[in-house]
């Protein structure tokens, strides 16, 4: 069963996917958010192409666990996604994943321009791997 993860931002959406056994996460792509571009159609295409069974969307909570403006934007995005896709969609606490992705890329000595293009995809991969590990540990 493949799971898709999304790291939703205002300019980019990082996309990662699990292997068929649901054990490991791999970065897939970064969707650029542009006016007039239907990101939901791109996500639907990925869901169909890879036979995705569920979707995990990173929820950017504040450090104290409360929802802020960015979390509200992601919740609104998920509500629209649900209108376009029938698969189960789960929100997953993504605190610090983007910062962790940035740290990993800095250690890799990747140029700033290349980091910008893969940071969101790597963040989605981290969100998904955390979710898959939790699911395995809890036998969910």
TrEMBL record:
Keywords: Cytoplasm, Hydrolase, Nuclease, Ribosome biogenesis
Broad EC category: hydrolase
Cell compartment(s), UniProt: Cytoplasm
Primary localization: cytoplasm
UniProt-listed GO biological process terms: rRNA 5'-end processing
YqgF/RNase H-like domain ranges (all copies): 1-101
Superkingdom per UniProt: Bacteria
InterPro entries reported for this sequence: RNaseH-like_sf, YqgF, YqgF/RNaseH-like_dom, YqgF/RNaseH-like_dom_sf
Gene Ontology CC terms, in alphabetical order: cytosol
SMART domains: YqgFc (SM00732)
An example molecular function term from Gene Ontology annotations: hydrolase activity, acting on ester bonds
Enzyme Commission number(s): 3.1.-.-
Role, per record: Could be a nuclease involved in processing of the 5'-end of pre-16S rRNA.
Family named by the database record: Belongs to the YqgF HJR family.
Protein's UniProt name: Putative pre-16S rRNA nuclease
